[in-house]
Write a structure and sequence with these properties.
The structure is a homodimer of 314-residue chains. Chain A is of the alpha+beta class and 314 residues long. Chain A contains nine helices and twelve strands. Chain A folds into two domains: 136 residues, PurM-like, N-terminal domain (60s Ribosomal Protein L30, Chain: A), CATH 3.30.1330.10; 155 residues, Alpha-Beta Complex (Phosphoribosyl-aminoimidazole Synthetase, Chain A, domain 2). Helix content of chain A is 32%, strand content 26%. Chain A has a seven-stranded mixed sheet. In chain A, strands 2-5-3-4 form a four-stranded mixed sheet. The longest helix of chain A has 18 residues. The interface between A and B is large, with 65 and 66 residues.
């Protein structure tokens, strides 16, 4: 069983590149205020066997942990810069697995301009468990919430939906019929989602409400409707699909298949409302905001029964 | 098994009292910068059976989780104001245990002026695991590190040492001979340490180096010596003891007993170096800073062999 002091000294200290981290020698990170900016914070946890598959490689687990948190920052238009990390290692997580986990962190630190800032490593008799607290800066007083959607706004989403959900099945060997290349692409969409930090700031400038799509497109749209006190109308056929998801859908009942793609979750795209004509390039209109409450879903102009939408009415 | 949405809505949303928390409805907390102040962040994790006893009441586990983090902020002179929380519930943690955990958070939020700001709750097939990311403000550019101790400084500690270590034994039924009252006092010192937020700011104003005593007085003194590139001389007999620890010590070999109290850890006092005459009231001088390296421990003016000090030379 590797020692925690040695784990920190050899694997984590090299990742603490920012001066705010104080070389992980000080139990705390110290972050000077930045006048004109707000600090945006988010924290998500993952558990082996619950949020990832037991044989997922540790480096990809590390990168997905960072990315699901980065997705929350992206949806708020924040520019990420660092994170605190807590890891509970099970006994089977020896030096090699720990080093692989740290290597994954290093890769995505480089990809996203992050520094490790602090945290804690402990041992556990249970499954591998980790949480990351991600920090980003955003223009002061201009971080969109979920609560600002206005009647007359349009509803948009970035990228494509359903790939994460298909990717989980692909990773478990359930989509062989789509061919090796599609299986590989979808598996990576599940294991290594790409947070939309590219579009986040431009969206935050014009959006009235934003959320990242983690629970599923329909569930997250319902959250915006509820928080904003408005009704969202969403056209299922407008939800953008990847070529791989379209190929999968061709072998399914069209409505049932679309519902599955739009409720599966793990998309890590940005869902947002904005006045007509204001959405940046690279986003797809999928509906509109009207007076009322709740989410109204249509497929080819016909209403879909709410009991078929398959998301929690929280 | 309680639902996570319901857990958040019923137990955690009432704890998100600060506007920065956005009612836990937004996946992120948004914190305006405060010109003239630095944000101090720390994150610690606890695992059932590793960091607390399996039958420790959930409300006390919650409070200790906050307090061990608050102790890190106290040692840096920061004024705490909020935290993000990640909790992994095992199946046996039903509604009643979750409510007790939230009640413990509520109690210490009131005691320390905290708001829950965000986080994540998940289920786990393993033991109860939680991490907290605590946030505090401190005067800009004046947060002491571990690395500033200077030859000529004195070494000080707040409160008393060894009570947490004795308290763990008391909680396990090992100190009956000290009497019910002492057992109760020591058990509470273990379960509910009191972070020295009262003394932290005054210490930070004068200290050249600070650390909270979590690993043990000698280990944390060695960390300061190493980080500062100096030698610390520490007189074991000067380490302040509670009446309960003194009563325990009376039945032990004096040197071995003192070594145990000074290496046990879980004290959550503040250890610091400062120029002579500068330490605030309520702190005890226990040694001095000289040129050289490492920690030199004496007992009644005789050196104690380093191999008896019982801490990791990390």
């Amino acid at each position: 069983m590797p020692d925690e002091f040695e784990t920190i000294a050899r694997l984590f200290r090299p990742l603490a590149t920012a001066p705010e981290a104080r070389g992980l020698a000080d139990d705390v990170a110290v972050l000077p205020s930045r006048p004109g900016l707000d600090l945006v914070l988010t924290k998500d946890a993952v558990v082996d066997g619950v949020h990832f598959l037991p044989d997922d490689p540790p480096d990809l687990v590390a990168r997905k942990l960072l990315r699901v948190n980065l997705s929350d920052l992206a949806a708020k238009g924040a520019q990420p810069f660092g994170y605190l990390l807590a890891v509970a290692w099970p006994e089977r997580f020896g030096w090699k697995a720990r080093a692989a986990f740290a290597h994954g962190l290093e890769q995505d630190q480089a990809a996203y301009g992050l520094s490790l800032l602090g945290g804690d490593t402990v041992s556990t008799p249970g499954p591998f468990t980790a949480s990351a607290t991600l920090l980003g800066w955003a223009p002061q007083g201009r971080v969109p919430s979920r609560a600002g959607a206005q009647p007359g706004d349009r509803l948009f989403v970035t990228g494509t939906v359903g790939d994460g959900w298909l990717g989980l099945q692909a990773a478990q060997g359930g989509l062989e019929r789509l061919g090796r290349e599609a299986v590989d692409i979808l598996t990576m969409r599940y294991r290594l989602p790409e947070p939309r930090l590219d579009l986040g700031p431009a969206i935050a400038e014009v959006a009235t409400a934003t959320a990242d799509v983690s629970d599923g497109l329909l569930a997250d749209a319902a959250h915006i409707a509820s928080a904003s006190g408005v009704r969202l109308e969403l056209a299922l056929e407008a939800a953008p699909l990847s070529p791989e998801a379209a190929a999968w859908l061709a072998g399914e009942d069209a409505l049932e298949g679309r519902l599955a793609l739009c409720t599966g979750g793990d998309d890590y795209q940005i869902l947002f409302t904005a006045p007509p004509g204001r959405a940046p390039e690279g986003t797809t209109p999928i509906g509109r905001v009207v007076q009322g409450e709740g989410l109204a879903v249509t497929y080819q102009d016909r209403p879909v029964q709410p009991d078929r939408l398959g998301w929690r009415h929280a």
